[in-house]
Amino acid sequence: MTAEPASTRPGRRPGPSVTRERILEAARNQFADKGFDHATIRSIAQEARVDAALVHHYFGTKHQLLIAAVALPLDPATVLGPLASAPLETLGAALAGTVIGVWDSAHQPAVVAAVRSALTGGREGLIRSFLLEVALRDLVPRVDSPPGTGELRIALVASQMAGLFVTRHLLGVDALRTLSTEEATRLIAPTLQRYLTGPLG
User: Fold this and answer.
1) Under a CB-based contact definition with an 8 Å cutoff, are residues 163 and 132 in contact?
2) Nearest-5° angle of CA 104, CA 114, CA 84?
3) pTM of the prediction?
């Protein structure tokens, strides 16, 4: 592994925790501004003023770096992976149940804190990149019918889920906050299914 470039300022080098946070801050900026696809480990390393090898050392892959940057307690690939085998005609219910199940689990405080931090910190692009380019990306080809509508369908799904999350967990709207996981899933699943497979015209 290549060592971190020496600082131009006199004094001690930043410790591992400082370096790690500097990389995370650069990653948040890059992902928010450029999106997941166009941000690179090299560009993140350049902004953080470290060698690219150091980014890999602390975080592994770009995917893992994004998870750390958003500060989520779970990897979406693990959570949403089973949806790949869910029947298309019940995908809306499967997606709603999976995501709302995470929101209502012991991970809820960490998820709420991560989303609130990104939104209040002016990094809406970070959440957008995470949702559309990572979390829901693998669903696009499954619902791309007619051809060319997959990205729109997933964007509509993201809008519905994001709206529910904000009103239920950030704004605390009582009528939504008090719904059980099963009730919330049952109510939103038909809308998600229509966005995923229904007519768009």
Assistant:
1) no
2) 60
3) 0.78
